[in-house]
C-alpha cells in the first residue's frame, strides 16, 4: 500500500514537471533553429541593423523592434487611463452589486478572439483615420488603439483584485482621520495595491508585445522606421507570421531568431512581474 | 476646506466616465458584430460547406474543425493540468520546487501564441513528421492551455475544506483514496471550469492553428488531416477581403460561442466558491 502511494506521488511529480519540460523544449527548439544565424550575423548585426531583405541575405530586425516598442507603448497609453479608472471606480466607489455584475462581464470580454479586435480596427478605425487624419489607415495609431482596448480586461481585472485585496482597516483608518474617499485612494489604497497593479500592467505589456494576428490586420506591416503615428510598421510577431510559410534556409533561421528575441523579452517581463508580485507579498 | 471634497467629486466623475467608456467600447464590439452578422446566420450557414473559398455557402467544416481540435487539445491537457494541480496543492508544501513550477506555469501562460506556433511547427509538423494536422495542432494548443487548467483546478482543489480530507484520512483512507474519492469529486465543478476555459482559449486561437494544423477547408476524416477552425476562417475571409458578409457571420458564431462558454464557466466556478465559503 505504501509503495503504491509513493509511486503515485512520483508519477504526479513527473506530471507537475511537465510545464517546466515544455518551457525548456520550446526554448531548445527555438534556439536550435534560430541561434546559428544570430551567431553568423552577430548579435549587433541582427538587433541593431535596420536592413531586412532576406533575398539579399540581410537580416536586421531593428525596424521590427522599434515597431513593436511603439505599438506597445501606444497600447499602454490608451489602456491605462481607462482600465485604472474602471478598476478604481468599481473597487472604491461602486456598490458591491454593481462590481459583482460588471467585473465578470469585463472578464468575459477578455474572451473575444483577437482576430475580432483586429477586424474592428479594419472596419471602424481605418475609415475614421482616413477621413480625419489622412494616411491609408493601417498605422501605429490604429494598432495602439486596438491593442489598448484588447488588454483593457486583463489590466482592469487584475487591478480590481489588487485594490480589493487591500485590508478594510486601511480604508477605515484613513477615513476616520478625516480624509476624503479620494485622498484615501490616492495616499493609502493605491500605494498599498501598487505591486499588484504593476504586475497586471506588465502582463498587459506582455500581451501587447506577443499579439500577432490582430496586429497583422491593422499595423500595415511595412519594414520602415516610423516618422509619425500614422506610418505603418511591422512588429516582431508579424514578421514571423507573414514570412514563415515561404521562408527557407537562412531566411527561416532569421525568423526563428526573431522568435528568440520575442521569447527572451517575454521571459524578462515575466521575471519582472514575478519579482514585483513577490516583493508585494513579502511586504 | 472645500477643496478636498471638490476634488473628490471631480475625480469620482472622471473615474465614472472612464468606466463608462470601457464598458461601452467592449459592448459596442459585441453589438456591432452581432448587428452585422446575425442576418447572415441561419441553419444553412451552419450546416453547409463553403463554396468559392468562402464567398458563398456556410462554415460547417470549420465548425467541425474547431470542435475536433479543441477536443484533442483538452484530452491531452486535462490529465497534465489536473495532475500538476493535485501535486501542487496536495503533495507539497511551498518549496523551491513548487515556486519553480509556479514560475514555469506563469511563463508558459505569458508566451505569445506565435512562439507556440513556431515550436509546434518545428517539433510536431517537421521533426516528428506529423505534418499540418489536427494532432500537431491539438498537441501545441494543449501546451498553451495547460496554465489555465492548472491554475483553475488548483484554486478549486484548495477551496475544498480541510475537514473533508481529515474525515477521510481518519477513517483509514490513504492519501490517494482521499484525493480520488473525496477531494476531486468536491472540486469537480472548478476543474470542469478550468477545462471549459481551456476550450474557449483554443477556439479563440488563430496563429497556432495556422502554423500547426494548417487551413485546409475540408471536413477532416482523421487526426492526421489538416483542418480550418472558425477563427482561422474568419481571419482569412476578413484579411483577404473574400467576403465581409460571411466574415461577420463567422465572427457572430465565434463570439456567441465564446461568451456562452465563458459565462457557463463563470457560473460553475461561482457556485463552487459559494458552496465552500
UniProtKB/TrEMBL annotation, chain A:
<dbReference type="GO" id="GO:0005886">
    <property type="term" value="C:plasma membrane"/>
</dbReference>
<feature type="transmembrane region" description="Helical">
    <location>
        <begin position="254"/>
        <end position="277"/>
    </location>
</feature>
<dbReference type="Pfam" id="PF00528">
    <property type="entry name" value="BPD_transp_1"/>
</dbReference>
<feature type="transmembrane region" description="Helical">
    <location>
        <begin position="184"/>
        <end position="205"/>
    </location>
</feature>
<dbReference type="InterPro" id="IPR035906">
    <property type="entry name" value="MetI-like_sf"/>
</dbReference>
<dbReference type="InterPro" id="IPR000515">
    <property type="entry name" value="MetI-like"/>
</dbReference>
<keyword id="KW-1133">Transmembrane helix</keyword>
<feature type="transmembrane region" description="Helical">
    <location>
        <begin position="7"/>
        <end position="31"/>
    </location>
</feature>
<dbReference type="InterPro" id="IPR011864">
    <property type="entry name" value="Phosphate_PstC"/>
</dbReference>
<feature type="domain" description="ABC transmembrane type-1">
    <location>
        <begin position="65"/>
        <end position="273"/>
    </location>
</feature>
<feature type="transmembrane region" description="Helical">
    <location>
        <begin position="105"/>
        <end position="129"/>
    </location>
</feature>
<dbReference type="GO" id="GO:0006817">
    <property type="term" value="P:phosphate ion transport"/>
</dbReference>
<feature type="transmembrane region" description="Helical">
    <location>
        <begin position="59"/>
        <end position="84"/>
    </location>
</feature>
<keyword id="KW-1003">Cell membrane</keyword>
<comment type="function">
    <text>Part of the binding-protein-dependent transport system for phosphate; probably responsible for the translocation of the substrate across the membrane.</text>
</comment>
<keyword id="KW-0592">Phosphate transport</keyword>
<keyword id="KW-0813">Transport</keyword>
<comment type="similarity">
    <text>Belongs to the binding-protein-dependent transport system permease family. CysTW subfamily.</text>
</comment>
<dbReference type="GO" id="GO:0005315">
    <property type="term" value="F:phosphate transmembrane transporter activity"/>
</dbReference>
<feature type="transmembrane region" description="Helical">
    <location>
        <begin position="141"/>
        <end position="163"/>
    </location>
</feature>
<protein>
    <recommendedName>
        <fullName>Phosphate transport system permease protein</fullName>
    </recommendedName>
</protein>
<dbReference type="InterPro" id="IPR051124">
    <property type="entry name" value="Phosphate_Transport_Permease"/>
</dbReference>
From TrEMBL, chain B:
<keyword id="KW-0813">Transport</keyword>
<feature type="domain" description="ABC transmembrane type-1">
    <location>
        <begin position="63"/>
        <end position="265"/>
    </location>
</feature>
<dbReference type="InterPro" id="IPR005672">
    <property type="entry name" value="Phosphate_PstA"/>
</dbReference>
<feature type="transmembrane region" description="Helical">
    <location>
        <begin position="247"/>
        <end position="269"/>
    </location>
</feature>
<keyword id="KW-0812">Transmembrane</keyword>
<dbReference type="Pfam" id="PF00528">
    <property type="entry name" value="BPD_transp_1"/>
</dbReference>
<dbReference type="GO" id="GO:0005315">
    <property type="term" value="F:phosphate transmembrane transporter activity"/>
</dbReference>
<feature type="transmembrane region" description="Helical">
    <location>
        <begin position="100"/>
        <end position="124"/>
    </location>
</feature>
<feature type="transmembrane region" description="Helical">
    <location>
        <begin position="130"/>
        <end position="150"/>
    </location>
</feature>
<keyword id="KW-1003">Cell membrane</keyword>
<keyword id="KW-0472">Membrane</keyword>
<feature type="transmembrane region" description="Helical">
    <location>
        <begin position="58"/>
        <end position="88"/>
    </location>
</feature>
<dbReference type="InterPro" id="IPR035906">
    <property type="entry name" value="MetI-like_sf"/>
</dbReference>
<protein>
    <recommendedName>
        <fullName>Phosphate transport system permease protein PstA</fullName>
    </recommendedName>
</protein>
<keyword id="KW-1133">Transmembrane helix</keyword>
<feature type="transmembrane region" description="Helical">
    <location>
        <begin position="14"/>
        <end position="34"/>
    </location>
</feature>
<dbReference type="InterPro" id="IPR000515">
    <property type="entry name" value="MetI-like"/>
</dbReference>
<dbReference type="GO" id="GO:0005886">
    <property type="term" value="C:plasma membrane"/>
</dbReference>
<dbReference type="GO" id="GO:0035435">
    <property type="term" value="P:phosphate ion transmembrane transport"/>
</dbReference>
<comment type="similarity">
    <text>Belongs to the binding-protein-dependent transport system permease family. CysTW subfamily.</text>
</comment>
